[in-house]
Structure formats: structure tokens, C-alpha cells
Design brief:
The complex is a heterodimer of chains A (111) and B (115). Chain A has 111 residues and is an all-beta fold. Chain A is built from no helices and twelve strands. Helix content of chain A is 0%, strand content 51%. Chain B has 115 residues and is an all-beta fold. In chain B, 0% of the residues lie in helices and 56% in strands. In chain B, the strands form two sheets. In chain B, strands 2, 4, 5, 6, 9, 10 and 11 form a seven-stranded mixed β-sheet that branches. Chain B has a four-stranded antiparallel β-sheet with strand order 1-3-8-7, with no helix packed on it. The chains are: A mainly beta (111), B mainly beta (115).
């Protein structure tokens, strides 16, 4: 079945460092791809999305490009802040009623 | 209003208690979801309602009973829970059930502890 694989965390960075969180997927069709973020003690928030190959989703300085050839949707940010510390979930929607989540990657940013 | 509101935020209950979790959205979304999230794990889908009808039950034990009284409200009734049911319970809604715009809006969750 369809699945999402994320890099193991935690990812520990200093403020203003460059961030990459890797996400790859397996799907038989043409899924839509999402990044959700969960801040401590809160629910998940949609960060960005891409619905077809070569689409780039972006929000709050974060970007991810839907790469069909490498089945990837890596999350990047040029300069992280302490307030970006959270857990990031990659997810796919394969056209059924379910959203398939990766295992999550914890990001810790230190001043 | 782009919020999904869940109450209560925290709940402690004994194994013989009956309690309910509540979820409300006023975005006109027609799909609503219950997820269970254990610490350091992704959310696990429990139930999906579409147009107020139960669409998916992910083989959830009968001690969890969902209810969708109207298009804005979703309840989760709890009875005779076990300590391993302690988790964060998340409600979510989406404009449509599936497809390229299957974006979920989540509430902040109810942190449930079963003693």
C-alpha cells in the first residue's frame, strides 16, 4: 500500500541555519503531498501542500517541491528560528478517504 | 472562522467512567475525523464522518463510540476505557473527503489519561 518515509529525528540546528527534512513516498497513483507541523501541546497545522509533479508548496519561509522522478517531497527553510521548533509530518492523500502520515521529525532550534 | 474547537483540553477518567469528547467547526466542512495520537507517534485514524454519516471505522474497539449530531459537531463517547487508551485525541475536518484538496484542519486535541 501507499506509504510515507521521513528521516529520523531529532534534527538539531542553531538559529539561522539551513533546514532540510527528507520525505519520500510510495504510491501507485498520483497523490497530493502535504507537510503538517505540530507545536508542543497543540494539534497539527497544515504548513504547505503540492497536488501534482513539479509543484512547489511554500509558506512561512518553508518550501517543498513535488519530485515524481525521485518520489520525494523534502521540506526546506533557508534560515530557521527558535519558534520553528516542532514536529513536522509529511503526508500523502491518494484519493481515498485517508491521509497517510509519516512518522514525524522533531526539529529543535537553539539560539 | 477557521478553527476546530475541542473540549475538554484535558480529561482524567477511571476505567469505569463514561465521558464524552466534543468537537465543533463552523467552516462548512462536510467531513470530520477522529484521530488518536500517542506520544512521539503520528496520528492514527479512528473514524471518518462524511455528510454526518459514518464513512470509516478503523476497527476501533466498541468502548469508543462516535456521534455526529449535525454537520458542525462531532462527539466521541468513551466507556470502560483501558489505561493503554491514554493519548491525545484529535478532531479534524476537511472541506471534502478526498482528492487533491484533502486538507485537514485539526483541533488542539484532548489529552486523555485513563487511570
Amino acid at each position: 500500500g501507499d506509504s510515507v518515509t521521513q528521516m529520523e529525528g531529532p534534527v538539531t540546528l542553531s538559529e539561522e541555519a539551513f533546514l532540510t527534512i527528507n520525505c519520500t513516498y510510495t504510491a501507485t497513483g498520483y497523490p497530493s503531498l502535504f507537510w503538517y507541523v505540530q507545536y508542543p501541546g497543540e494539534g497539527l497545522q497544515l504548513l504547505l501542500k503540492a497536488t501534482k509533479a513539479d509543484d512547489k508548496g511554500s509558506n512561512k519561509g518553508f518550501e517543498a517541491t513535488y519530485r515524481k522522478e525521485t518520489t520525494s517531497f523534502h521540506l526546506e527553510k533557508g534560515s530557521v528560528q527558535v519558534s520553528d521548533s516542532a514536529v513536522y509530518f509529511c503526508a500523502l492523500s491518494d484519493g481515498t478517504d485517508k491521509l497517510i502520515f509519516g512518522t514525524g521529525t522533531r526539529l529543535q532550534v537553539f539560539p | 472562522d477557521t478553527e476546530v474547537t475541542q473540549t475538554p483540553k484535558h480529561l482524567v477518567m477511571g476505567m469505569t467512567n463514561k465521558k464524552s469528547l466534543k468537537c465543533e467547526q463552523h467552516m462548512g466542512h462536510r467531513a470530520m475525523y477522529w484521530y488518536k495520537q500517542k506520544a512521539k507517534k503520528p496520528p492514527e485514524l479512528m473514524f471518518v464522518y462524511s455528510y454526518e454519516k459514518l464513512s470509516i471505522n478503523e476497527s476501533v474497539p466498541s468502548r469508543f463510540s462516535p456521534e455526529c449530531p449535525n454537520s458542525s459537531l462531532l462527539n466521541l463517547h468513551l466507556h470502560a476505557l483501558q489505561p493503554e487508551d491514554s493519548a491525545l485525541y484529535l478532531c479534524a475536518s476537511s472541506q471534502q473527503l478526498a482528492g487533491p484538496h484533502h486538507m485537514l484542519f485539526f483541533g488542539s486535541g484532548t489529552q486523555l489519561s485513563v487511570l
